[in-house]
Structures are given as C-alpha cells and as structure tokens.
Amino acid sequence: MSERIEDTMDHHHTHHDGDAGSPADAQAFWDARYGERERIWSGAANRALVDVVTGVQPGSALDLGCGEGGDSLWLAETGWMVTGVDISETALARAREESAARGMGEDEVEWIQVDLARDFPAGTYDLVSACFLASQIPLPRTEILRRAVAAVAPGGMLVLVSHASAPPWAGNHHHGPRDFPTPEEELAALDLDADMWEITTAETRKREANGPDGERATLEDTVVVVQRR
Ligand SMILES: C[S@@+](CC[C@H](N)C(=O)[O-])C[C@H]1O[C@@H](n2cnc3c(N)ncnc32)[C@H](O)[C@@H]1O
Q: Is the CB of 87 under 6 A from ligand 1?
C-alpha cells in the first residue's frame, strides 16, 4: 500500500486561484513545511499516477510540484526522462540525494527549482503530471494548468490528481470551495480545444489510507487524464 504521509498530516492545503503571494513567502512556507521533518511524504509514487502511466511507452516527463520526488523517481525507474520541479529547495535536496543514491544521472532525472506562480519550464513533454499541486500560499492554479496543457507534446498526456474531499480526520478546518476540484472543474480549468484533445479519464477514485492515529479511511481523489492528439 503506497499511501501518502500527506493523507495523515496535510489537512489544510488549499487550491487558491488568484494572485500569487510574494515568491519569498511561498518558498519560505514550503521550505519550512519540509523542514518540519526529515521526510514529509512516503516516498512512494501516487497510486493514480502509477495506474495511469503503467504500460505507456516512456518518453519525456515533467512533474509539477514534485516535492521529495516520489513520482519522479518512480517515472525515471520506469524509463521516463524526468524533469521534477518544485518551489522548495529543501524538498529538491532530498529528491536529488535519493536519485544520486539510486545511481541516476541527469539524463534520467533532473531537479529544478521553479516557482510555478511566476515561471514555467521550457519545452514540451510526452507526460506532464500535477499530483496534489496545491498550496496554502495563493497559487494561480488555473494559469499553471493551462501552461501545463501547452507543455504537452503531440501524442502526449496530462495527468492531474487532486483530493476530491477532505479526509475524515481533517475536522472542521475551513476549506474553500475550490480546495477539492471535481473532474468537471479540472476540465473547465484546462479549457481544452476539443479538436486537439481526448479526455481519457475524468473521475473520482477511492483509495484506502491511514489517519494520524492509525485509523483507516477511504479517501477520494479527482483524477483527470487528457491526451493530445
Ligand atoms: C501537496 S505537495 C505534493 C507533492 C507531490 N507532488 C506529491 O504528490 O506528494 C505540493 C507541492 O507543491 C509545491 N509547490 C507549492 N507551490 C509551488 C509553486 N508556486 N511552484 C512550484 N511548486 C510549488 C510544494 O513545495 C509541494 O512540494
């Protein structure tokens, strides 16, 4: 079971759409968040991404908000040439250390510090993924997702995985209406040209996870996969 530590800890991130805060604030927030522990996430790849990508011919991949690199490392080991980007140097240092420990070179996985609120990696990719790309610091998520669409090479795909609802242990913490996008909302944000894109998946999927006190619960992810013709 490859559940995320995130499911047990991170009850309060939000999908703000709007003006980005100051870049220093966003990086400081995430560096501090990662600095709270030696490791925040489980290190395992996200189940939904693994399910979607398994069996797809590997090519180039861009992992947006890669964090400590669980998805990027899995993709690289599956044969993809991966670019993992994140705002947090603390997270990227962990990812870099792990890929070096596994003997991976820069031709297999490279890690780049990017504030996606302001900048976006150049080029196009056969796979672009954004798994739980959310922040408590305002994040222009729709704008980022549209740039992600533009970064998909012909024949390539875009994979979005988000929380569809709060974990039961999240308590009464306030969540905004856009914190848990539905598949329809994700698709609307992408604003795809129907002639150029095929919607492969737009659904919520359940998975089992452990809460902070070890309680089991079923969590729901919103999973959207679109393929460029
Ligand atoms: C909830 S974590 C998800 C990490 C990883 N994708 C996963 O599924 O475990 C969100 C990630 O987005 C990154 N992030 C937040 N705002 C960002 C920004 N403006 N630019 C780039 N990355 C950002 C954070 O540093 C964090 O690693």
A: yes
The CATH number of 6-228, from 2.40.37.10, 3.40.50.150, 3.40.50.300, 1.20.272.10, is 3.40.50.150
Q: Residues 159, 127: contact at Cβ < 8 Å?
A: yes
The b/e string for 27-41 (b: 16+ C-beta within 10 A; e otherwise) is: bebbeebbeeeeebb
**Every domain of the chain and the residues it spans:** 6-228
- By most ligand atoms within 8 Å of CB, the mutation choice from 30, 33, 46 for ligand 1 is 30
Dihedral pair phi/psi, residue 210, rounded to 5°: -100, 140
Read off the tokens for 45.
């790849």
Task: Provide the token pair at 144.
Answer: 């980022």
Q: What is the mean pLDDT of each run of 10 residues along the chain (229 residues)?
A: 40 49 86 90 91 98 98 98 98 98 97 98 98 92 97 98 86 64 97 97 93 86 98
pTM: 0.90
Are residues 72 and 66 in contact, defined by beta-carbon separation less than 8 angstroms?
yes
26 lines ligand 1 (CB under 6 A): yes
**d(CA 77, ligand 1 centre) in Å:** 21
Interval between CA 195 and ligand 1 midpoint (Å): 31
Cα–Cα distance for residue pair 180/79, rounded to 1 Å: 32
The reply to whether ligand 1 has any atom less than 6 angstroms from the CB of 109 is: no
